Every structure is written in C-alpha cells, then in structure tokens.
Amino acid sequence: MSSLGSVLTAIVTPFGADGKVDDAAFVALMAYLDQQGSDGVVVAGTTGEAATLDDDEHLDLIALAAQERPRPDFTVIAGVGSNDTRHAVKLTAGACERGADALLSVNPYYNRPNRRGLLAHYREVSAAADRPIVLYNIPQRTGADLSNELLAELAQIEHIDAVKQANNDNLALVDGLALYAGNDDVFARTLEMGGAGGILVASHVLSPQMRRMADEPHNRASIDQEIRGVVTALGIAPAATTAKAALGLLGHPVGDPRLPYVSVSEEELTIIKNALAAIDLLPSA
Radius of gyration over alpha carbons of the chain, in Å? Predict the structure, then answer.
C-alpha cells in the first residue's frame, strides 16, 4: 500500500460568484472529504480545472491545501503537469516549496514528444522535485499513450514512484511504480490486482463506500455494484461539472465551473439526482 493513501479525491476547485477561487469553500470541502473517508486530495488536477487557473491561483491553492489540511497525515498531491517542460519544472518546484506531499505529472499533451523527448522531459521534472512523482497516463486527453514498457523505463528516473492509470486497457502492475486507478470504474479491479488505490472523482460523494472498498475486500464487489449507477451518472459530462453538481445536491455548493466548462444541463442534473437518490444519498427534504 502506498503511503499516499488509497482513496484520493481529485478535488474540485470552488469558485465564488465573482469567479475567483473560494478559499473557504475549498478548505470546508477538504474537511468534508476527510470526514467521509478520503485519505487525501489531488489539488489542481483536471477535475480541479487546472487548465483555467493562472500560476498564482494554482500555486496558492496548493499552499492552502498543505496549510489547511484537516489532519497532518491527510495527503496533498499537487497537479504540476504541462506540455512546456519549463512550465512543468516551475510548477513542480513551486509545489514542493509550498508543502505538497507528492506531485501528479501528466505527459506533455498536444505537442506529443517522442520517447527520447518524453524521457528528457521527466528527467528535468525530476531534477526539480524532492518528493514522489505520480505519472498520469490519460491518452484520451494527451493524445499519446504511455505503454507499460515505457512506464517501467520512466520508473528508473529518481522520484518517479507511481502512476495514475487512466487507460483501462493498460491497467497492470509495473515494476517500480505504485498503481492508482485513474478511472472510478476500475477502482475495485485495481485494488484486486494489488494496486495502491485510486485517484477518484466519485469519491466527492462516495468516499464512505470507496473507503469500505479499500478496507473490506470481501465486500468490494458488492459495493462496486451498488455505486455503479452513480459512477456512470458522473460520467455524462466533464468530471468537474458533474462533481460540482453532485456536491451541490448534497448541500455542499462549490460554485460554477469556469469556461470552457459549463454547468450541467437540467437533464444531466436529473440523471445525477436520480442516481444519488437510488442509493439514498440525497438529504431528506
């Protein structure tokens, strides 16, 4: 089991009515996730709308999470990926300075470097780090897949200790890397194969169930089946938007997403509401 924890929530970034980051709502949400069973959070990841945060907002949010974590061993992992190596290095060094426990680093998207470029990129990122790096393989967003063979090679670079695997076809243990599910629908499968856990979105509203999946192997399959409808419902639109909608339904308003994301439609909200109601998660009127 990785020391980072097994139930890690890719926390949304709350925004106020003025469009600015809502620090108080963020701290309150961290406390709620801790109470519900999350071991920690990934700050400023995809679900945290990192692409719409400027560098000051990005690094200030990481500092806030590290300073205001609900308990000393509540894990804070900082999203620090970029398709510009210099920018990735800047974010990596900044996150280390601000107290993150580990770093989530996606492979460069859009420009899609070749193997030698990718290895060179991560050597530069590693040189700026003094704590664990979690690779993030999500080819549907980056346009390039990190094969398990390549992941094993990247694992030889100092500080690269884990992978968030969001390509279900690649889901496998790789020498030198702790394995984290990058998609909620394979959290149970990842645990069954000896993975460390998951970096999850549905844990915004399903942390107790996902905590039990990690702690109660004999009940894992039945819990996975029980929550499948909610996991599916949260996949009907971008994760930041559905997670924010679900939190609002549970009484934890976190504001609207930033463009180019938009809030879920009424039809999408109804699907999410029905899924939550089906397993008695909605507060009584």
Answer: 18
